[in-house]
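Minutes, project check-in
Item: structure for the 392-residue chain
Input as provided by the requester:
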Amino acid sequence: MLFELNSECVFPNPLLSEEDGLLAIGGDLSPERLLEAYRNGIFPWYAEGQPLMWWSLNPRMILFPDHFKCSKTLWRCIKAGKYEVRIDTAFKEVMLQCATVKRAGQDGTWITDEMLEAYTTLHEMGYAHSFESYYDGELVGGLYGVSLGAAFFGESMFATMTDASKVCLAALVDFADANNFLYIDAQQETQHLASLGAQPISKEDFLSILFLSNQRETLKGKWNKAMTEEISRVTLLIGGNQGDRVGLLQQACNMIAEQIGAIVQLSSIYETEAWGFDAEQNFLNQAVVVETRLSAHEVLDKALFIESQLGRVRTGNGYASRTMDIDILFVDNNCIDTPDLIVPHPRIQERNFVLVPLCEIMPNYVHPKMNKTIANLLKTSSDKGKVVRYKV
């Protein structure tokens, strides 16, 4: 089924495309529409003089980073340092080369002036990226594409010297692996891509992986070769007993996702009486697991800022009612002991209102100091406080 797009920035279900993968015509190449397309596994592909066409192919060619096949020849080329690889230093030049370099069996180019302008805008916004190879200071190979969530959507590559583009692909694979990308989208099935480890998968499987990718934080901004910092998993407990408790929890989750990192696990909401003091309303709490590139102390700073934005005023006078409380419970399996931050949180085992939501999402996680699972800590807890799942 072929659809015609209008000014509204939405796409039809990608499963409804024609047999050849063509889904829709029309629309524009605005940043908003392009990003919405990639979020749905759709990409533009058309030639000069043709209407703007949008595709969702079946099967879809993707490369999992750990499936990359590096030949002995390519490995020797990389080890010898024949080419200097750079990232995001010549995006527009890479696109122009991809548009103009002659390819066997291909006349003309689909990289129109409109495409060049649109993807350059995405690059300036931090969503589109290029990997470049240089020989004696001259650009001789490269590739470019779009990054969203935990995926890189490859668009095109070029080489004017042997293996110059493959070296860029190897660098992209290393970058994707270091930054926990799920896959590299190669769009169309070719023998060349298959020789490098890419494989065709069904559209249904592709959309399932895409859904998982879209839950992850996009690595926006200018990339560089030093960006190999590992992503940490930080476990938080959020909660409060003042105001619109459910609404404040939702606001906190949104702000955490925006300012700290992607939420990868989220417990149900639990209700419990105030711990250690009397209060007009019971507390509502949730456990949240976030993937982040921030340090533990940077997470602490963000958490305190989010608390303050949601109306929390810290007085230092002990336990009291509050609109929002964000506690850092775990940072991977690390132990931190500083004047302003102790991880794991020192009183987890004493509080059922912490252990119950944790047990829902990570019962087998082993406390790095106590060497017990969360489930075992809850089982042996001496806290008699009643914790119940809250019906929203």
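Outcome recorded: The chain has eleven helices and 19 strands.
No further action items on this chain.
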